[in-house]
Amino acid sequence: xxxxRLYTRTGDQGTTRAADGRVLDKxxxxxxxxxxxxxxxxxxxxxLACGLAPRLEESLTAxxxxxxxxxxxxxxxxxSEAEFEVPRIxxxxxxxxxxxxxxxxxxxxxxxxxxxxxxxxxxxxxxLARTVCRRAERDVVALARQEDIGEMVVPYLNRLSDLLFAMxxxxxxxxxxxxxxxxxxxxxxx
Length: 190
What we know:
mainly alpha, Hypothetical Protein Ta1238, Chain: A, two-stranded antiparallel ribbon, 5 helices, 2 strands, 57% helix
């Protein structure tokens, strides 16, 4: 793909074009959904810029590419007659995420308490990405109430948020930084 211009002026009136050429309002559920996925991808870039454990960097680079596929999937309605083959999220992607979760959890051990976002800078960035992923999931669910989307899109985002949590725990473990644990109400007053 080659972009010769970064601006199109299409958005000056509050609209944008879907991948198949349809004009959409910028506040439409479809644009909100793929916009949140784009924001998620950017937060993963921030996490990577923190300098994560090599095991996480490799996986996150693959996930960033998959999120571009997800953005294309969401920006192209299923009834579209796009002129190109649209990448769609498949069950293999969800299984891959589950395998990464299992691998990391085997290293960090089972969760024994609620964990607060924080610890090492990379872990904190991954926790932020996890919350953006949850919002993207909510935006995709809202879109799915109005239009058909791929059956694996919601499971993919759901599993990805779990993986980002597992990655944050692993990053703290790798850096030998204690996980910040939740202390029930009243702990501040003590």
